[in-house]
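Hi everyone, sorry if this is the wrong subforum. Our group has a chain we'd like a structural model of before ordering constructs, and none of us has done structure prediction before. Sequence below.
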Amino acid sequence: LSISYNWGKITKTRDGGYIMTAAPTHGDAAWLIKVDHQFEVEFIKEYLDTVNRSHFRYIAPIELSDGYLLSGAIQRPNYLDNSFARRVDQQGNTVWFKYFGDYDVGNVFNDMAKINDTLFVGFCTIETSPNNAFSSIQYIDLSGNVVRFWQSELNPEVGFARKILSIPDGGVITFGLYPVELIGETLIV
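Answer:
Right subforum, don't worry. Here is the predicted structure as tokens:
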């Protein structure tokens, strides 16, 4: 198993332990590992996926009152990434799993934040071609439904989605990468 910049994250839990994601080197699964404050393993859950090409780009898990919210991007059979979220119970069993965005358009949840106990916000980059993209903000309820959606203009001056922080009044602060110039077919950020 491996934890790295793109394929594994760790979050401290209310009970003093940690919840983390990891990926095997073959990339056809994701793992959720819960340890206590002394790093004794409480459970390990594997989410095997033999359909998609890779299943390892996870954002840091978000702790819920009755489980965890996992999110990120999965590379589909068409080689494009698609945003996803998976809600699991306190033992890591899947409650629901959903894709967000169109199958034929590359899109990635770069970050996810908890607004309150029933509402989350995902910050997404939607790539329509190698040098064209949008940023989007998606508010998702506890059942996985998008209840509010915003999308930028193409190649927005404010930059591309990278990080989102929730603030106490229910708003968000976002930041990302600024598009500098187009060189040939490549957009430099």
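For your construct planning: Residues 57-188 form one domain. The chain has a mean pLDDT of 89.
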